[in-house]
Amino acid sequence: MPRFTKQTVSIKEIIKKLHNAISYKDLDTILTMWLLEEQISYIGFDGSCAKGTNAIKHAFAKIIDKISYIEILNIETHTLIGCIFVETLEAIKYDSESNQADCYLHATYVLVQNRDGWRFLRMHFSIASDDSVSYDNCLQEKSTTGLH
Questions:
Q1: CB atoms inside a 10 Å sphere around CB 40
Q2: Per-residue pLDDT tens digits for 100-138
Q3: Among the residues of the chain, which ranges form H helices?
Q4: What are the pLDDT digits (tens) for 31-52?
Q5: CB neighbours (10 Å) of residue 10?
Q6: Structural domains of the chain, count
Q7: Residue 34 included in any domain
Q8: What is the CATH number of the domain that holds 135?
Q9: Do 87 and 106 meet the contact criterion of CB atoms below 8 Å apart?
Q10: Do 22 and 70 meet the contact criterion of CB atoms below 8 Å apart?
């Protein structure tokens, strides 16, 4: 396949790939999904901040042992040339045996496109309040072009 051939990839598939890598404790896959630059950043739901490839590697190494499953309940995307902003509501399970989520997170992902495809530039997580988690938020998929 030619080096610059574009492939159509669903952003939801990319987020799901990240979630699967976290569930399977696959740190190498997680890191390949990021740009390899020092400008990348991650803010965890506990307020921790990581900037740069090495710091992000250490941040994910801490959390992947705790999380067993992540489910997207709501996803909204905003696109700009070469950049996508993704907002999600996610259910997090720490115990794979449990039927209920242990917590809910709001996540914001910023992805940029380079010759290797879509890569994460930024991630920000915060704990969702109980009133933001409702049936209306669950399993909805919204997409807009441009930013509001």
A1: 21
A2: 888 899 999 999 988 888 999 999 999 887 665 544 444
A3: 11-23, 27-32, 53-63
A4: 999 998 888 999 988 888 999 9
A5: 9
A6: 1
A7: yes
A8: 3.10.450.50
A9: yes
A10: yes
